[in-house]
Amino acid sequence: MLSVRTLHKSFASPSDGGSVKVLDDVSFTVPAGSFFTLLGPSGCGKTTTMRSIAGLETPDDGSISIGGITVFDGARGIYVPPNKRQIGMVFQSYAIWPHMDVFDNVAFPLKVTGKLKSADIRRRVERALETVQLETLGNRPATRLSGGQQQRLALARALVVEPDLLLLDEPLSNLDAQLRDTMRSELRRLQREVGVTTIFVTHDQTEALALSDQIAVINKGAIVQIGEPQSVYERPQSRFVATFLGSTNLLPATLAERPGADGIGRAETAHGHLACVFAEDAERAPSTVVSIRPENILLAAQPVEQPGLNRFGGTIHERVYVGDSVEYIVKVGETLMRARGTPHERFNEGQAIQLHMRAHDCLALPGE
Amino acid sequence: MARPTEQRTASVSPPAVSTTATRAFARPEPAPARRGQIKRRIRLRPTRILLFALLAILLGFLTLGPLAAVVIGSFRPDGLPFGEGWTFDNYIEVWSSHYSWVLAGNTLVFTAGSSAVAIVIALTLSWLIERTDLPGRALFRAAVLMPMATPPLLLAIAWALVLSPTIGIVPLALKPLIGAFPSWLDIYSLPGTIFVQGLAYVPTSILMLSPAIRAIDPSFEEAALVARATRVQVFFRVALPFLTPTLISIATILMMVGVLAFDVPAVIGIPGNVPLMSIEVFRRMTPPSGLPDYGGSAALNSAVFVLMVVGLVVYRRVTRHAGRYATVGGKAYRPRISKLGAWRWPALGLVGLYVAAAIVLPFLALFWASLIPYFGGFDASLLNRVSLGAYHDILTSHGVWTAAGNALAIAGLAVLALLVLGLVTGWAIVRAKSRAASLLLDVLSMIPMGVPPLMMGVALIFLAFGIRIVPIYGTIWLIALGHFIAFLPVSTRMMQVGLMQINGELEEAAAVAGANLVQTLLRIATPLLRPTMIALAIWVAVHSIREFSIAVMLQSGHNSVLSTVLYSFWETGSSSQAAALAVLLMAMLCLMVAVSAYLSRQKD
Fold first, then answer.
1. Residues of B with Cβ-Cβ distance to A38 under 8 angstroms
2. What residue spans of B132-276 are helical by DSSP H?
3. Which of A62, B110, B247, B402 could serve as A6's disulfide partner, Cβ 3.0–4.6 Å?
4. pLDDT attached to residue B82
5. Which of A91, A143, A176 has the CB atom closest to B223's CB atom?
6. Given CB atoms, is B225 within the 8 Å cutoff of chain A?
7. Left if phi > 0, otherwise alpha if psi is -120 to 50, otherwise beta: which for A152?
8. pLDDT tens for residues A69-108?
């Protein structure tokens, strides 16, 4: 459906006269009907990628095709302007035109083509407003809408033309926390219902994990990992992805034993051997770190003997009660590790403790 | 690298949750706090009320006083506000004459026409400069404002030199080719006055339009573009509606100022026998013999007064809703630049044409006229008679030096007074908690906008005659007062716009931090407004030095200024001296405008 090939773009840097790479060899394909997320910290190039797909920005090189039609090709000098690409877009600010009412905002994309009868326009606008549950607000001035309503309106305006591709630029970031949760599930329901291929830009990992079929993690203008939410979260291939999505403990380590047939190898850490799985590049990397997520550490006062279970001894350094769970900071040797416990079982600060980790939950990553 | 996308917030913003809370903090309930805090809280409100009351009285005296003088004068048999008896005779005399109605009609055409000319040119130019990849736009951004250095008076003289059928450069040059010069190109006509007046209004219009164009959040247009609209549709359906309030307010201001504009009519209208209201008012006030017709001119002015009220109401209605589109919080957007492609050369030609018509041509014409003893078009045979004699005449003339000193003193006084009063009034209007107080001050400060300079001159004569205890008539103080009142609306507006871009919470934070009203104004508002204040100071100085209508009305004795001296040279046929003075004046104003453009330059 959407194919993005080797996009490059750099801006001249005003400070040192050099250039800053905003997009560095960005490539990905999105199958029809799927929900694809560009996730990364601010300034990483995710928005530039989306604006390039929309045609609001021109990359220096590469190509983009939507639904089999090439809309941009740096080498062949092809550039299709935004109004000729079959897309719908929701802007971060929503960009609701304040001089039009709700109906006119949605009708605008249909009116400017000048090909539809006004009865058809009315019918389609009403249907779009129904989809986002704004059907009763058609005559209201656009300035008299709440944040959530503005977001729905922006969605209706993007969807009314039945675009091939829906672009969402951080649409939830302007909403307050509770509304954001509601709109998140609403967005997912809508996308499933309409079945439109969707590109979603966000810096919020929770949104990305909850909504996406596929996530592309971007850092410094380059895609560092693409995959389904679960695989990106559970099997990050780099230190950046492991720390950017969720929280994790990183232990410096060296390779002690290559993975065998079961995929389990051994890494040597300051606290002893760890049975763990290895990320693709980790075996060959000069140094490695082992990533262990806090929720994968089982704390117990007494050692649990079980084959394949790694075990460290430590003391509880700090306990933080966060409601649905308890966060512990555990001192293992000179290292502080984070672990998560249930509210039912309490350990006290200073208490000796055993940390248990399944080999499959320990992931050796390239050190840099 | 920092893309605008990353810093955008909704213009139709989600309700600001914190506003009420912040307000509550700004005026805390009396808690068992430190003594100083409690004292401050009690003092705060009376200070405000006193400030508002004083401002209202001062503004009322400055702006309603002159108006009252004119209106009352129009009902007095002798036409002076402090005269005796009441009568309708002045009105009957003026409006029973058919000629007055011709005047009114012509004046309407003149005003509407010149405003339309100015707005069309200004919109085209500022859009090309702000929003397209026009070659050399940074240069043109400064260049299109340079004509501010060509006051209407000079522009009119220069175009008379270029297009006058008897002595103009173009008609004389074309004579051997086409014989008689086509009469429709005669500058001494109503279309001629409209053209030159419109050209003179362009810089002011651009100054008001450009910020409005830059303030449009580009995502509104991007959204339209993504929604299948063509570039033309994006302009007319999205961008133009955002600019409409600004365009209407520009039109209103130009119409109100233009209705009694006198500089262009004085130079072009009088010799062209174009019947215009301003010329008639001037004639009645300065008859060749006998007493001025105070009553008649007061009655004519009172008709303008009605128009002014209508204009002010329109202006307020339009600008009141302007805030709805404004994005407050000092967001700087990276404007969306569209590529002109093959159109860039025609566009460049268009901008070049304007710069030529508004500054290059006038300057060349004036420069040429200043070098030759008498003016008769451009002719190679005149080249050997070129001399700097006119400059020598001027620079050794005691009158000219006195006039220059007067002009500078008047400009300095006006700048100082307007910086202070403009800031205080603008602040009071923007930050007033009471809507009624804000409205009152706003209306009072806007009134002079509807008082044409010529009428202001007339009104000040009435006042100065009436209040003889202060011997102000015939001094530069009276002209300074006139400039001060005339430029008050623009100053207040500029300060208001500047203040509106500063989030009120910044000042509230200062209040919470323990600053009082004066400290907040001096330490928070003033530094943040520095660019606005510099721009304002230069704007007032330039406009005061080039101002003609008020100065010519109030001229008497030793208070002549550069513009009036220049006009009397021109009127008495000393065209080389007039042109030489004009060239020097232009150079001076150019320098001031250039400094202003440099200080307020946009970083691309």
1. none
2. 137-143, 152-163, 169-178, 190-214, 218-226, 231-233, 240-258, 263-264
3. A62
4. 79
5. A91
6. yes
7. alpha
8. 999 999 999 999 888 888 999 988 888 888 888 999 999 9
